[in-house]
Write a structure and sequence with these properties.
Number of strands: 15
Largest sheet: 5 strands, antiparallel
CATH topology of the largest domain: Immunoglobulin-like
CATH architecture of the largest domain: Sandwich
Number of helices: 0
Radius of gyration: 23 Å
Shape: elongated
CATH superfamily of the largest domain: Immunoglobulins
Oligomer: single chain
Helix content: under 10%
Number of domains: 2
Structural class: mainly beta
CATH class of the largest domain: Mainly Beta
């Protein structure tokens, strides 16, 4: 989320035509095209954040600025060249890092929350805990994971919550 994404296309010499067909999971399809004989580009129903990376006759790559969940979907590049026709398809999935919160509940137990991540985060404790995380799904495909630390001994002073996620790992410590 929020970064730039570049999808490459088979680069061939003597390109006749390049077409990007975009089918987002939300919203209507979009097409970007380039015709070499007219040195002309065109688009149908494409947003401003999705465009050619450079000039398509030099590099037929597609660039998505400020990637968001609305960009998820299938992206297919078709290159027509004197060597033949070439296709490459991507399925774009957007990772959303969870927001980590660590607090003490009313009974003095540490509680770790990894809110609104995509996909769901994994929560680990140091020292180890045999707690079972609870997951709550949200309407935009994000998931909140909640885990309560269950101590093996009562003389614990400091516990650390480690949140593991494809968009990056985070940790926080607390003494309850």
């Amino acid at each position: 989320v929020g970064t730039s994404c570049v999808l490459t296309c088979p680069h061939k010499s003597n390109i006749t035509m390049v077409t990007w067909k975009i089918s987002p999971e939300v919203g209507g399809p979009c097409t970007l095209g380039y015709r070499a004989d007219q040195n002309k580009t065109g688009s149908t129903n494409c947003r401003g954040s999705t465009s050619w990376r450079f000039r398509p006759d030099w590099d037929p790559a597609l660039e998505i600025q400020q990637v968001g969940r609305a960009h998820e979907g299938n992206y297919t590049c078709e290159v027509v060249a004197t060597e033949g026709n070439f296709h490459k398809t991507y399925h774009l999935t957007v990772l959303v890092p969870p927001k980590l919160t660590l607090y003490c509940d009313d009974h003095g137990n540490p509680v770790c929350e990894a809110a609104a991540g995509k996909p769901a985060a994994q929560i680990l404790w140091v020292p180890e805990s045999n707690s079972t995380p609870k997951e709550e799904g949200h309407d935009k495909g994000t998931v909140t994971v909640l885990s309560k630390f269950t101590a093996h001994s009562t003389n614990m002073t400091n516990t650390t919550c480690i949140v593991s996620h494809p968009a990056g790992n985070q940790s926080k410590s607390i003494a309850c």
